[in-house]
Amino acid sequence: MTLEGEVREAADRILDADEVTVISHIDADGITSLSVLMQAITRAGVMATPVFLRQLEPLMMHRVPQDNSLKVFSDLGAGQQNLLEEHGLTEDEVVIVDHHVSQEVDTPYLQVNALPYGHTKFSAAGAAYLVARAIDADNRDLAKLAVIGNVGDMMAREDCGLIGPAREIAADGIEYGNVAARRDLNIFGISTRPLHISLAYSSETPVQGVTGNPQGARRLLERHGIRTRTGEGRWRVWEDLDDGERQSITSALAEQVIADGGDVEKLTAELYLFPDETPHTALRNAAEFSTLLNACGRWARPEVGAAVCADDRGVALREAEHMLTHHRATIKELMNYILKTGVEERGAVQYIHVGDRFPDTVVGIGAGMALSRLNPDKPILVMCSLPEDPSLTKVSMRATDRMVEGGVDLQAALVEAAAPFGGAGGGHAIAAGAYIPREAEEEFLGLVDGCIGRQRTRPPMP
Ligand code: C5P
Ligand code: C5P
């Protein structure tokens, strides 16, 4: 089958169903893919019920209803098809809309998954959008949610933004009018953070005198005659600046990076903005919107994020913003903990155990952010304990595009290393996770290290 064929069949099966259950993951990509599907399905007049799962694992299967509804799994399912089989789900009652590595099983479940077609930079929300558009071409307003899912799952490349089908989806949103894309300074918080804070705390490309130095950032702004507050006394944000102001700061930062012998390549990136949202809120751009959704999921309230996606704002938005503040503080604390404590270098990986200091749902995000400030040649592996089950350890790994191009595949490494202990692992080449028995930590680490070491000695992929 082709990807188009998978999309068409999924849409037809949904349209034929009396009732659908959408079962999705709790992160930004899971929340947006569920929201895209729920909106498309209910607009088509079919009843739909949402279910969020932290992971598709044996203990969670009781949340998958045993009824006559069509079960649409989004952002999960591809890698756990054995569980669907064990749960007695037949081919007819399942559609999987996912972007994870697929697991071979006897039952030929219908899957909409662009990964086997070579699209590695494509999220589940992207796949959900293709299905929504096949249900009804008028669903193009939902492209915006797919852009958020793609950005939330780090599918945008630093050099050229979203690529392949993810780029075509962004183009749908731009044409519809609720998405705008522009090449701009690669900083976080362009809609909500005071200018100098945003400049100081976005460290993708360190700039001497500015990174980690809000006072220095303020002086830079003053030198260029850029006001940091509005007439009413509100802090200005990057989004408030006009083209000329943005250009002068970007050029000044580039000059400083070049003077320090740094690389300006990652100083700018393609940013995705939402002109239909209220200015100065976290909903105004894809990076902040996806962080807000991740916050909802990681604090176990994904349904609040889904309400925000479905324009059901009010109380939900206030609650989501509250979780976002908490989430940002926790991630900052985790990053500082990793960088201050330092990682232990093994042959092929760098490693840290954070104990029970941080929730297992955020360690992967913190690991990814810390990696840009650690050894650029080794993937990072973070372990944490699960307070609700002390016999288990959660493992999160993150790599970079360059490592993956050099042969690193974290998903394969974790699946292989977890197998001898009956652990469950999965994810992507660039980001993966696993649960293992606590007593196996040291041995597991050795296996992962050996596995990554062997991957790196393979000839690079074409
Ligand atoms: O299940 P899952 O796909 O949700 O994992 C999402 C996590 O993986 C995010 O934290 C994201 O940072 C990371 N990821 C990534 N690059 C990819 C895919 C996922 O960094 N290409
Ligand atoms: O939890 P974390 O953000 O590190 O997850 C990274 C990726 O690994 C995600 O795609 C997640 O779905 C996957 N994962 C998995 N099995 C686990 C833990 C994480 O497939 N036990």
Break the fold down into its secondary structure elements and pairings.
Elements: H1 3-16, E1 19-25, H2 28-43, E2 47-53, E3 70-74, H3 81-86, E4 94-97, E5 110-112, H4 124-135, H5 143-152, H6 164-176, E6 180-185, H7 195-200, H8 214-223, H9 243-259, E7 268-273, H10 286-298, H11 302-309, H12 315-341, E8 344-345, E9 350-353, H13 363-371, E10 380-385, E11 392-398, H14 401-405, H15 410-418, E12 424-427, E13 431-437, H16 441-457
Parallel strand pairs: 1-2, 1-3, 3-4, 4-5, 9-10
Antiparallel strand pairs: 6-7, 8-9, 10-11, 11-13, 12-13
Helix pairs in contact: 1-4, 2-4, 2-5, 2-10, 2-11, 4-5, 5-6, 5-10, 10-11, 10-12, 11-12, 12-13, 15-16
The protein binds cytidine-5'-monophosphate (2 copies).
Domain DHH-CID: 187-266
InterPro entries: DDH_dom, DHH_CID, DHH_sf, DHHA1_dom, SSDNA_exonuclease_RecJ
Protein name: DHH family phosphoesterase
